[in-house]
Amino acid sequence: MLDTVYRDFGSGYVPRWHRDIIDLDGAYLTPARHTLVVAVDEAGEVVATGALDSRGPAHPPNPAHVAEKYPSGVTAQLRRVYVRPAHRRRGLARRIVDELLAFAAADGGYRAVYLHTDPAVTGAEPFWRSLAKVVHDEREDAGGGQGIVHFDVPLA
Length: 156
Known about the structure:
By secondary structure, the protein is α+β, with helices and mostly antiparallel strands. The protein is built from six helices and six strands. The chain has a six-stranded mixed β-sheet with strand order 1-2-3-4-6-5. Strand 3 (75-83), helix 5 (92-107) and strand 4 (112-117) form a beta-alpha-beta unit. The longest helix has 16 residues, at 92-107. The mean pLDDT is 94.
């Protein structure tokens, strides 16, 4: 996960955005309604990740109408769906998302599944558009907002 924030996002570790990456147990393993999925290769190297938690998008930095539509507690937010470049285009991200959605459905308390992505990350936007519906594209805002695209993922 840290490799991704440095390599793909170019931001490096920013505590207010990436604290969960440092505390995976507290963020995804200990809370009963949260989970973390990890894919490893034959050598035991982590090649893909995905997480889910019960926190809706916060305002700020996200638009107020998005935060209101996806309140914490009843929204499953997909996070940290990352695949190392050498392992992309093999269906790993889709399999991880399927596992996360199955977890959310089994929980029974989620009414919606939400995620946001940075379209500057290679392949991210087309991948999410193939699985989800855009609910807000900040690039269309006056000034471009943060440039983030917000999605609603069907909870089947």
